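Example for tutorial group B:
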């Protein structure tokens, strides 16, 4: 508990959890509501194109975005050279967490959108008809019918996102080779445990870190679930 490297990794994960997860779920929910409204053209193409990144392995996704981020030979560097711009390096130390958050969002936004959309499709159509008779507009329909109807799906995605945030490993591990000065061997707790076990030959200490990480993840996920259920009962 007194290991500063472990606490730094936990702080990184909690910061990502507090900023990236709400943004990702908010965009995924907005896309699901837009598709469910039936007012968009090319809905099938939109569903496929948004969900497709989830089928790409995390290592491949990180490599794609990592080379795009590069200010030397990637998209950022090409734009700076071609247009005479001075875009900031997304792989520098103060921006690396936001860059990782963007990669994770791109990877999982389609997965969460599919969960929301599936939940929206099973809401009884009679509720929509009753709301229309009462003169409810689209915003009132979303607030009073759709969001309460997918509360269970919201809880599932929040819990899964919490677990996924604490499991963050592939993205910072791959970016170490592209941005060695921006990440470290203890950037996240899972990366720290991996380094301890396979590079430092400290298997017992890595096991202790893993057990602590599992307990913290379970405690936060359980607290979110209990709080959500209490609000539902109220």
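The residue assignment follows.
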């Amino acid at each position: 508990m007194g290991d500063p490297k472990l606490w730094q990794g936990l702080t990184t994960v909690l910061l990502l959890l507090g900023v990236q997860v709400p943004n990702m779920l908010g965009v995924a929910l907005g896309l699901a509501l837009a598709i469910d409204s039936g007012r968009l053209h090319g809905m099938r193409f939109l569903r496929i194109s948004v969900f497709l990144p989830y089928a790409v392995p995390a290592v491949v996704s990180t490599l794609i975005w990592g080379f795009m981020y590069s200010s030397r030979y990637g998209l950022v560097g090409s734009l700076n050279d071609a247009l005479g711009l001075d875009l900031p390096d997304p792989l520098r130390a103060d921006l690396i967490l936001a860059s990782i958050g963007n990669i994770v969002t791109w990877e999982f936004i389609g997965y969460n959108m599919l969960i929301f959309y599936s939940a929206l499709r099973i809401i009884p159509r009679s509720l929509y008809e009753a709301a229309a008779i009462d003169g409810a507009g689209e915003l009132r329909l979303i607030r009073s019918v759709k969001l309460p109807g997918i509360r269970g799906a919201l809880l599932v995605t929040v819990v899964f996102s919490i677990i996924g945030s604490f499991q963050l490993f592939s993205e910072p591990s791959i970016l170490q080779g592209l941005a060695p000065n921006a990440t470290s061997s203890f950037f996240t707790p899972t990366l720290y445990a991996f380094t301890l076990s396979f590079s430092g030959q400290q298997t017992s200490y890595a096991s202790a870190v893993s057990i602590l990480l599992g307990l913290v993840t379970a405690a936060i996920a359980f607290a979110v679930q209990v709080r959500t259920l209490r609000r539902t009962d109220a």
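The CA atoms of residues 185 and 192 lie 6 Å apart. Compare this with the pattern of hydrophobic and polar residues in the output above.
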